[in-house]
Design a protein that fits this description.
heterotrimer; A: 270 residues; mainly alpha; MetI-like fold; two-stranded antiparallel sheet; 77% helix; 2% strand; B: 317 residues; 14 helices
Chain lengths: 270, 317, 379
C-alpha cells in the first residue's frame, strides 16, 4: 500500500513542485523586495535587509492604515451593492424570457471592455455634477459599475446552470416563487455567486484610477499609494503595499469559503 | 445513462427553452401540464418582471458609464469639428500591427488559461488523493490577490535576463549564465496574463464542477472510464457555460490592462491600451484614443457575441 | 442588515464632503518621493508656520500620465461648472502647464508672492512655446542624462556620435525606452533630432513652428532606426533604471532626479554615474500651479512661497534629494555649505549643464517629432 502511494507521489510531487515554483517564485520576489534595503546586479539576493520602507509606508502622516480601512469599507459596500443588483438581474437574464437579452449582457460588459482612460474625464464630470465627488458613495458606485461586469455575468451563468426542474418541483409542492428561489435556487447558485463576490471585492480593492477621479482628495485608498509607487519603480513600497492588501483579500476569501463549505455541507444533508 | 446526460446538459443551457419543449423530452419527470399552462398566460408579465429585475443594474451601468462613454466616444468621429472617420484611419495606419498583436496575445493567453484552469479544476474535482487536492487548492489561488500593477513589477524583476528566475536556475546549476535570456517581450505579457488570470477562471470552474451531479461521474468511473475521459466527456460539457463566461471576463480584463504591457513589454508592437495612454498623455489626442477604445470594444464584443449567439442557439434547440 | 449598511454608507458619503477652510489640498504628479516630500517635509513646515492649517497631498503617479490626470481633473470640474475646486496647489510637468493656462484653469500668482522675483530662467516664463509667465513657480529643474556603471564602462560616450559608436561596438548594451514609456526616452529622441535633425535646433526649441521642418528629419530617423537595432528597448523610465540595476544594459538615458531616488532606495549600485552628452539633451522643470478656482488661494500662495523660498529649496530640494533647485542658483547656494552644493555637480559640471541642458522642443514640434518617430522608427 505505502509503496504504491510513494510511486504515485513522484509525478504528483513533480507537477505540484513545478506549479509551486511558478506561483511562488514571483511571490518570493515580492516578499524579498518588502524587506530589501539594497539589491542590484550582480547580487542574486538582496545585499542588505531591513524595514526602513515599512517605516515609510506606516509613517503617521502617510495614513496607510486609515486608507486601508477605507479601501476595505468601500470594497465591502461594493460587494453588497453589486450582488444586490446582480442577483435579480442574473436570475432574470438566466430564467425569464427577456427581449434583447444578448444586448443587455453586452451592455453590462462595456465598463470593462472599453479601456477607461479616455472616459474618466467625463465620468468625473458627471460625478461632480451630481455632487458625488469626494464621497464614499461616489467611489462605491464607480467600483460597482466595474464589479457588475463580473457579478452579473457570473450570476447569469450560475442561475442558468441550475436544473430548472428542482425549482419547478418546489413550486409544484406549493412554494411561492420567491420561497422557491430563496430555498432552492439561491443555495444552488451560491458557489458561483460567492466566487463573483470575491472577484468584485478584489476588483474594488485594487482599483485606483476611478478612485482618484471620483474620490480623491477626500477619499484616500491604499491602491492610490500603490499605483504611484508601482509605476515609479519604487519596488519596496509597492511590494509592501501589495502585501498589506493581501490581508483583507485573503480574509475575505476565507470568510466566503467558510460560508461556502457549510452551505455545500448543508446541501449534502438534504 | 447517455439519454439522461443529454437532458441535463440541455437543461443547463435551457434558460429560454419554453417549458413545453422540454417537457416533451423529459416527460414524466415534471408535471408538465401545470407549468405549460402557466407559461402561456404569464408570458407578458414575466417579461416585464424580468426587465424590472434587470433595470437597476442596467441603470447604474448606463448612467454612470455608458452616458459618459458616449460623450467621449463621439469625439472619435470628430476631426476638427467635422464628422469624420479620420481618427479611425489614423488608428489603423499607425496601430494596425498593434491591434493584431493585442488580439493574438489575448487569444493565446485565453487558450492557455482555459487549458490550465481545466487541468486545475479537473484535478480538484476528480483527483483521487485528498492530500494532493488540498495542496493544489492551497497553491493555485495566490496570484488572484496580486493587483496587475504589482504583477507587472514582480514579473519584470523575475523574468528578466538577470532576474530572480534565471539567477535561481544558474545557482542551482540548471543553466549557464550565457544561456540566460529575457522573457520581457510578448512572452512576458502572456506569462503575466496567464499567471494572474488562470486562478480566476480555475476558481469559477472548480466551483461549477463541484456543484455538478456526482452520480454520473461515479457511474462512469464504475464503468471503467479513465479520469481524462470523464473530465472531457462528462464534466466539461456540464460546466461549459461557466468556462466560457470565465474566459470572456478574463479576455475583457486582459484587453483593458495597461500596467502589464507598459511594465513588461518594451518592444513595438505593443498592446492597444498602451497606445491609448500614449495618444492621451503625449498628444492629448482623445480622438484617436477613443477610436482605439472603440476598436478594442468591438473586438471584445465580437468575442462575447459569438458566445451569446451560441447560447441562444443552444436555447432554441 | 443591508439597509443599515446602505444607510451608513450614505451617512459616510455625506460626512466626507465638506472641506474645512484651513485645509490645503496639494495634488502632485511624480514619484512616491514627491508625495513624501509634501507630506513629511513641506506639510509639517507649513503647518508649523500657519497654525490651524492642515496640508494633505494626493499623488497622481509618475510621468506625463500623472500630470495628465491633474489636467483632466481640472477639465472635469471646469465642464461640470464647479465653483470651488477641490485642489489648491498642483505640481505638474512643464508640458501640461501650457494647456492649463490656455484653458484658463490657473491663477497668475507669481507677482504676488515674495519669492516670485527669485526666478529668472526662461523656462519659468515659456513652457514649450506657450507663455506661462506669472502662472508658475518651478519646484525643481530636472535633466535627462546618461547613467552608466563605471565598472562596466570606464569611458562612457560623451557625445551622440560616441553613443552611436558605443552601440555599434557593444550591441544591446545601450538601452532607452522608446517614446511610449516615458519622457527619458522621448528626451533621448529629441536630443537625437537636435544633433542630427539637419535643421536649426534653436528653432525647434523656440519656434516658430513650420510644418515643413519635418522633412529634414527623415535622415535622422533612418539612422535612429538603424541605431535602435543595436540598442535595447526598455519598458519605461523606471524600466531603463531597472535594467541598469541588473546589469542588462550598461548605458541608458534617465531622469537625474529618478536616478538619485533609485540610488537612495538601494536599487542602483552606488558607484553608478551620470554623463550629459553633447550637443545636449532636454530637461524640464516641475511647476507649482494654483487653480484659479481654488478655495484657499491665499493659503495656496503662502504655501508656494514657502516651497520656493531659498531655505526650503536648499534644504528640501538640494540637500534632501540632490535635485537642481527651481529658483535661481545663487539664492540657494548661499544657504548651503560648499560640500552639499558641490555634490549636486559631482557628475555633471555647472558648465556642462549650462551648455548641454536643453529645453524640450515647443509643443507642435514635440508632437511632430513623436509622430514621425512612430511612423518611421516604431513601425
Amino acid at each position: 500500500m505505502s509503496a504504491y502511494l510513494d510511486w504515485k507521489w513522484i509525478p504528483r510531487g513533480i507537477a505540484l513542485g513545478i506549479l509551486a515554483f511558478i506561483i511562488f517564485g514571483p511571490l518570493v520576489n515580492l516578499l524579498l523586495w518588502t524587506v530589501t534595503e539594497r539589491w542590484y546586479f550582480p547580487h542574486v539576493l538582496p545585499l542588505k535587509y531591513g524595514f526602513s520602507f515599512w517605516a515609510n509606508v506606516f509613517s503617521p502622516r502617510g495614513n496607510a492604515m486609515s486608507s486601508l480601512g477605507t479601501s476595505i469599507f468601500i470594497a465591502i459596500l461594493t460587494v453588497v451593492l453589486s450582488l444586490g443588483l446582480a442577483i435579480p438581474a442574473g436570475y432574470a437574464l438566466a430564467r425569464l424570457r427577456l427581449p434583447f437579452r444578448g444586448l443587455i449582457l453586452l451592455a453590462l460588459l462595456i465598463p470593462q471592455a472599453f479601456p477607461n482612460l479616455p472616459v474618466y474625464v467625463n465620468i468625473a464630470r458627471i460625478f461632480y455634477e451630481y455632487n458625488l465627488n469626494g464621497t464614499i458613495l461616489g467611489v462605491v458606485l464607480v467600483h460597482v459599475t466595474h464589479g457588475l461586469v463580473y457579478a452579473v455575468w457570473i450570476a447569469t451563468a450560475a442561475f442558468s446552470a441550475i436544473d430548472r426542474e428542482l425549482e419547478e418541483a418546489a413550486r409544484s409542492m406549493g412554494a411561492s416563487a420567491l420561497r422557491g428561489f430563496w430555498d432552492v435556487t439561491l443555495p444552488i447558485a451560491a458557489p458561483g455567486l460567492l466566487a463573483s463576490a470575491i472577484f468584485v471585492f478584489l476588483e474594488s480593492l485594487d482599483e485606483f484610477t476611478g478612485t482618484y477621479f471620483v474620490g480623491a482628495p477626500d477619499v484616500s485608498t491604499l491602491p492610490l499609494l500603490l499605483y504611484t509607487a508601482g509605476s515609479g519603480g519604487n519596488y519596496q513600497i509597492a511590494s509592501i503595499t501589495a502585501l498589506i492588501l493581501l490581508i483583507p483579500s485573503i480574509a475575505f476569501m476565507f470568510v466566503v469559503e467558510r460560508f461556502l463549505r457549510s452551505d455545500v455541507l448543508s446541501k449534502v444533508g438534504h | 445513462m447517455s439519454a439522461k446526460l443529454e437532458t441535463k446538459v440541455s437543461d443547463a443551457w435551457g434558460s429560454e427553452t419554453p417549458p413545453q419543449a422540454r417537457s416533451a423530452d423529459t416527460s414524466g419527470m415534471v408535471q408538465a401540464t401545470g407549468s405549460a399552462a402557466e407559461s402561456g398566460g404569464w408570458a407578458m408579465p414575466v417579461q416585464a418582471i424580468g426587465l424590472l429585475l434587470v433595470a437597476p443594474a442596467l441603470a447604474v451601468v448606463v448612467f454612470l458609464f455608458i452616458v459618459p462613454l458616449i460623450s467621449s466616444v463621439t469625439g472619435a468621429f470628430d476631426v476638427g469639428g467635422a464628422l469624420s472617420l479620420g481618427n479611425f484611419a489614423k488608428a489603423f495606419e499607425l496601430y494596425s500591427g498593434d491591434m493584431l498583436f493585442t488580439l493574438a496575445i489575448v487569444l493565446l493567453s485565453s487558450a492557455l488559461i482555459a487549458l490550465f484552469s481545466i487541468m486545475i479544476g479537473g484535478y480538484l474535482t476528480l483527483g483521487s488523493n485528498p492530500r494532493a487536492v488540498a495542496i493544489l487548492r492551497w497553491i493555485y489561488r495566490w496570484p488572484l490577490f496580486i493587483p496587475f500593477i504589482v504583477v507587472g513589477q514582480i514579473l519584470r524583476t523575475f523574468l528578466a535576463k538577470n532576474g530572480l528566475m534565471n539567477n535561481i536556475f544558474i545557482e542551482l546549476g540548471l543553466m549557464t549564465p550565457l544561456s540566460a535570456m529575457s522573457f520581457l517581450d510578448w512572452r512576458g505579457i502572456v506569462i503575466a496574463f496567464v499567471w494572474k488570470q488562470t486562478p480566476f477562471v480555475a476558481l469559477l470552474l472548480s466551483g461549477a464542477m463541484a456543484s455538478i451531479d456526482r452520480s454520473t461521474i461515479e457511474a462512469a468511473r464504475n464503468l471503467g472510464a479513465n479520469r481524462l475521459r470523464i473530465l472531457v466527456e462528462i464534466v466539461l460539457p456540464q460546466v461549459r457555460t461557466t468556462l466560457l463566461v470565465g474566459l470572456i471576463l478574463s479576455f475583457v480584463t486582459m484587453m483593458s490592462v495597461l500596467s502589464v504591457p507598459l511594465m513588461i513589454n518594451a518592444q513595438s508592437p505593443t498592446m492597444i491600451t498602451a497606445n491609448m495612454a500614449f495618444r492621451i498623455n503625449a498628444y492629448r489626442d482623445y480622438g484617436v484614443a477613443n477610436a482605439l477604445g472603440l476598436i478594442s470594444l468591438l473586438m471584445t464584443s465580437a468575442v462575447a457575441w459569438i458566445y451569446l449567439r451560441q447560447t441562444m442557439r443552444e436555447h432554441s434547440r | 442588515m443591508k439597509t443599515q449598511l446602505i444607510a451608513s454608507m450614505l451617512a459616510a458619503g455625506m460626512l466626507c464632503t465638506p472641506l474645512s477652510a484651513a485645509e490645503l489640498t496639494v495634488l502632485t504628479a511624480g514619484d512616491k518621493n514627491m508625495v513624501d516630500y509634501v507630506n513629511e517635509y513641506l506639510g509639517p513646515l507649513f503647518e508649523k508656520e500657519n497654525p490651524g492649517t492642515k496640508v494633505r497631498v494626493v499623488g497622481t503617479g509618475p510621468g506625463d500620465a500623472g500630470s495628465q490626470k491633474i489636467l483632466e481633473r481640472f477639465e472635469a470640474q471646469g465642464k461640470a461648472g464647479v465653483e470651488k475646486w477641490d485642489a489648491d496647489v498642483a505640481v505638474v510637468h512643464e508640458k501640461f502647464v501650457g494647456p492649463m493656462v490656455e484653458q484658463k484653469f490657473l491663477e497668475a500668482y507669481r507677482s504676488r508672492i515674495p519669492t516670485g522675483s527669485l526666478v529668472t530662467r526662461a523656462n519659468a516664463k515659456i513652457a514649450l512655446g506657450t507663455n506661462v509667465d506669472g502662472y508658475v513657480m518651478p519646484m525643481f529643474n530636472s535633466q535627462t542624462a546618461l547613467a552608466y556603471n563605471p565598472a562596466l564602462v570606464p569611458n562612457p560616450p560623451k557625445t551622440y556620435d560616441e553613443i552611436v559608436e558605443f552601440a555599434k561596438k557593444n550591441p544591446k548594451q545601450f538601452g532607452y525606452n522608446g517614446i511610449k514609456g516615458g519622457a527619458s526616452g522621448v528626451s533621448f529622441v529629441m536630443g537625437w533630432i537636435y544633433a542630427y535633425g539637419g535643421g536649426d535646433a534653436q528653432k525647434l526649441m523656440n519656434g516658430p513652428f513650420d510644418p515643413n521642418e519635418a522633412k529634414n528629419w527623415d535622415k535622422a530617423f533612418a539612422s535612429l532606426k538603424e541605431f535602435t537595432r543595436n540598442a535595447t528597448l526598455t519598458p519605461g523610465n523606471a524600466g531603463t533604471l531597472d535594467m541598469l540595476s541588473r546589469g542588462e544594459i550598461a548605458v541608458g538615458p534617465v531622469w537625474v532626479d529618478m536616478f538619485y531616488s533609485w540610488k537612495a532606495n538601494g536599487q542602483l549600485p552606488p558607484e553608478m554615474k551620470l554623463v550629459l552628452p553633447a550637443p545636449g539633451m532636454p530637461g524640464q522643470p516641475m511647476h507649482y500651479v494654483v487653480p484659479a478656482k481654488s478655495a484657499n488661494k491665499e493659503l495656496a500662495e503662502k504655501f508656494v512661497a514657502l516651497a520656493t523660498s531659498p531655505k526650503v529649496q536648499a534644504e528640501g530640494i538640494v540637500k534632501r534629494f540632490n535635485w537642481y533647485p527651481g529658483i535661481d542658483a545663487q539664492h540657494v547656494q548661499a544657504n548651503l555649505d560648499k560640500e552639499t552644493w558641490a555634490k549636486l555637480f559631482t557628475d555633471i559640471s555647472p558648465e556642462e549643464l549650462a551648455k548641454y541642458g536643453k529645453p524640450f522642443p515647443i509643443s507642435p514640434y514635440n508632437s511632430a517629432i513623436l509622430e514621425a518617430y512612430e511612423r518611421q522608427v516604431g513601425n
